[in-house]
Amino acid sequence: MNxxxxxxxxxxxxxxxxxLQQRLVEFAxxxxxxxxxxxxxxxxxxxxxxxxxxxxSPAANYAEAQSAEAxxxxxxxxxxCLKELRETHxxxxxxAAAALIKTASKLALLLDECNQLIAIFVSSINTARRKTGAx
Length: 135
Prior knowledge:
This protein is an all-alpha fold. The chain is 74% helix and 0% strand. The chain has five helices and no strands.
């Protein structure tokens, strides 16, 4: 298996809710794989920089959220995770639509994982807001 195939692996792993941090780390690693698989030209470098920045951010921000000093701080950090996941999703769509990597068809699994993570964070934000009465 070459590096690109490894980073864009199509196997699915069952995750428990407590494994969200690990799931975000695995997602970040797969996004890094996408970034390294992009063409070595101006477009590839630009998109690689953007997707790696956005796709690795949720893992770090989620770790910070776990040490939030107040519920509002937690919500803010989780919202950053959500924002970065949505940006990553758009970059993945662009990469797939422009066929910038040879295994673009495998991006569907990474897009699905991104969608699932987005849903988790939307739900977390809604739950945290309900608990504080925040809008």
